[in-house]
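Dig into my protein:

:::
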Amino acid sequence: MEKVFLAMYNPQIHESAFGVISVHKTRRGAEMAIEFDKKEKKKEWEEIYPEEDRWEFPFGIFELWTIREFNINL
């Protein structure tokens, strides 16, 4: 039995569900994918909200990233 690690993202923790960003052979690979995704999402957030409004809508407050370990049979 082999293991894979799923990098997952939930854009709205109160109204949505997790989706898979990517699948990796190592936990570190999944962690790197999440780091990259967070950076990209933060760039988008910075473009959407002007600096004076960011206190009202903090980055990531309703978002969640996680890693799930999955066993697969080959």
Remarks:
- The chain has a mean pLDDT of 93.
